[in-house]
Design a protein that fits this description.
Blueprint (H helix, E strand, L loop, with lengths): L2 H14 L11 E10 L5 E10 L7 E5 L3 E10 L2 E14 L4 E10 L5 E11 L19 E7 L17 E7 L6 E11 L13 H4 L4 E2 L5 E3 L6 E5 L7 E10 L2 E10 L3 E2 L2 E2 L2 H9 L1
Antiparallel strand pairs: 1-6, 1-15, 2-5, 2-7, 3-6, 4-5, 7-8, 8-9, 9-13, 10-11, 10-12, 10-14, 14-15, 16-17
């Protein structure tokens, strides 16, 4: 499997966790596990935002770590349906204790697609008091942008015929005031989607998959510098793609495992990779 295929599919996945398809458009199913570390003792609430340039809909909670209480509340950021708050009740979590939430959504592809998991915060107060001032530093992740260009990329002279498919570029950047380290970004393409309950770092079978690093571990993202850009050529094949990432910002880490199932029937039709590409070409 080529790395470019995995990276293209994964970044669509990373973008997809925050966005969802309307019934009239091709949709792709996303399963995700997001993990943060509490930066305070006695945390009773965790908040985070899914920021996107596409409206967020039908967020479904699938589970969480044992210190998560009940079902997280999901609500739009005021009248802006492209940003979503996720509020999670916690069982008095201690400092450096991990908190994980598992959820499902779907995505309607947009050009360009811009997504970030932002403002992950911990509070000592319970969520029913609507705390607004975090009890420790706020954690961020990189901003992922997928750009589309209708002109096909150049081909080698020995190529028999020129591809008529568009080209894609992934940009990974830091939209925050401080530098950020992209500790890990690994990708793997698999023939069929895994059961969402298996998306865990403790799952040996998941760890045994032929993961491929998409960036050098510890790559530094400078807010004042250019984004890290990677071309994403298309080979038209379907399947499922997994991504796992870890980013570090202001001394705090966030990690995630993402799965995109390109064959899952959502909305009004099967969301194959060909459907997604056709949406960009139109």
């Amino acid at each position: 499997m080529r790395l470019s295929l995995s990276l293209e599919r994964l970044l669509l996945t990373a973008g997809a966790c925050g966005v969802l398809a309307l019934g009239c458009a091709p949709a792709i199913q996303i399963d995700a596990v997001v993990t943060g570390k509490s930066c305070v003792n006695g945390a009773q609430t965790m908040k985070m935002e899914l920021l996107s340039n596409t409206p967020v809909h039908n967020f479904i909670f699938e589970g969480g770590s044992s210190n998560v209480l009940g079902i997280p509340a999901v609500q739009p950021n005021g009248n802006n349906t492209m940003d979503t708050f996720v509020v999670t009740d916690l069982d008095n979590v201690n400092k450096n204790e991990k908190v994980s939430v598992e959820f499902k959504c779907a995505v309607d592809v947009h050009n360009p697609m811009v997504v970030q998991l932002a403002n992950l915060t911990f509070f000592k107060q319970p969520s029913n008091l609507n705390p607004t001032v975090p009890d420790c530093t706020v954690t961020q992740t990189p901003t992922f942008t997928i750009l589309w260009q209708s002109t096909p990329p150049p081909v080698a002279p020995q190529t028999a015929r020129k591809s008529d498919r568009p080209s894609f570029t992934l940009q990974v950047s830091d939209a925050n005031p401080l530098p950020m380290s992209l500790v890990q970004l690994d990708l793997v393409h698999i023939p069929a989607a895994l059961d969402p309950s298996s998306l865990s770092d403790d799952n040996q079978a998941l760890n045994a998959l032929p993961w491929q690093p998409a960036v050098v571990g510890g790559a530094l993202l400078d807010p004042a510098g250019p984004p890290v850009s990677t071309p994403l050529p298309d080979d038209g094949s379907d399947g499922a793609v997994l991504c796992r990432f870890t980013s570090s910002y202001d001394g705090n880490d966030v990690s995630g495992i993402l799965q995109i199932n390109l064959s899952a029937p959502l909305a009004t039709r099967v969301a194959s990779w060909g459907n997604v590409k056709a949406l960009f070409r139109n």
